[in-house]
Amino acid sequence: MSAGQGGGYDVVVDVDEEGDLGHTDLQEDLEFHSSNFQSSSLNPKNLPNSSSRLPAPNNSSGSTSGKRYLWTLSFYAQFFDVDTSTVLSRCLATLYPRANFLDVLEGNPDLYGPFWIATTVIVILFLTGTISQYLAESKKDGGFEYDFRLLSGAAGLIYGYTGVIPVALWGLLKWFGSESANLLECWALYGYANLIWIPVALISWSSVTVLNWVFVSLGFAFSAFFLFRNLYPVLSATSIQTSKVLLILVVALHAGLAIAIKILFFAHGSPVAKKGAEKPPTDGEEEGEKMLRMLFGR
């Protein structure tokens, strides 16, 4: 028997077929070999230092890069961090609603889609409103002039409605104790609800007044149902009376938007257009028009 390094032994025992160790001759049946076991291999000092292969993380830079301040672009960029496929899928979920839109957002609402949808609605309202005015005034004497107040009016109406109403609704929900209210989700919900006004504006410029009212009414019904369906779970977190009042307020404000779109941008049968046509220009307006003609050589 020979001892290995570190006092270890490597023993090989040859047992007979019957497994009886009582008749084993230790001199003939047992074989002892020198141990190849190196005790130094288990020595922690000889193990490779794994920490030397992986550099230590730099926590100082990571703590500062994760901060976003209100006055930096990175703070607002996080609300627009969405790809085109996601925006298109959310637009499809708006036009063909199958599930609650807040579930479609998956806790990641964006402002990219609502901003460009609102901007597209503004441009189309200006173009179709101009066409509607042209058709309404084509039979009158004198040439047709573009009214760029339609553009500023569309921007004020759509941007104002989409930006202010969700903030007011979110504030009321917080006031009445709704913990599930989220400002970004309210903005996204109202922003994507404007998508229906794009096809409505494209087909509501005709000279048939009744048909225009039908198109605007359909757009109002669709978008109001979209808002009602997705806001109801949030509004129901308040009391029964409060949720009813808020739902009526949401539908009433949306009806006001639809009426404003019809009256301000589609001149056929519009009382505003008739009033503007019958109202004679004031002295200040005449002087301003003369100055513009002098500046532009007209």
Briefly summarize what is shown:
This protein has 298 residues and is mostly helical. The protein has helices at 26-29, 59-65, 73-77, 84-95, 101-105, 112-137, 149-175, 183-193, 197-203, 209-235, 240-265, 271-278, 283-296; strands spanning 10-13, 30-33. The longest helix is centred in the middle third of the chain and has 27 residues, at 149-175.
Number of helices: 13
Largest sheet: 2 strands, antiparallel
Spatial separation of the terminal alpha carbons = 120 Å
Low-confidence parts: 1-6, 44-48, 50-65, 271-278
Mean pLDDT across residues: 74
Output the radius of gyration. 38 Å
Strand content: under 5%
Q: Assign an overall shape.
A: globular
Reading side by side through the largest sheet, how are the strands ordered? Answer: 1-2
Helix content: 55-70%
Describe this structure in words.
The protein is mostly helical and 298 residues long. Helices cover 60% and strands 3% of the residues. The longest helix has 27 residues, at 149-175. The radius of gyration is 38 Å and the shape is globular. The termini are far apart.
What key phrases describe this protein's structure?
mainly alpha; single chain; 60% helix
Layout of strands and helices, then pairs:
Elements (H helix, E strand, L loop, with lengths): L9 E4 L12 H4 E4 L25 H7 L7 H5 L6 H12 L5 H5 L6 H26 L11 H27 L7 H11 L3 H7 L5 H27 L4 H26 L5 H8 L4 H14 L2
Antiparallel strand pairs: 1-2
Helix pairs in contact: 6-7, 6-8, 6-9, 7-8, 7-11, 9-10, 10-11
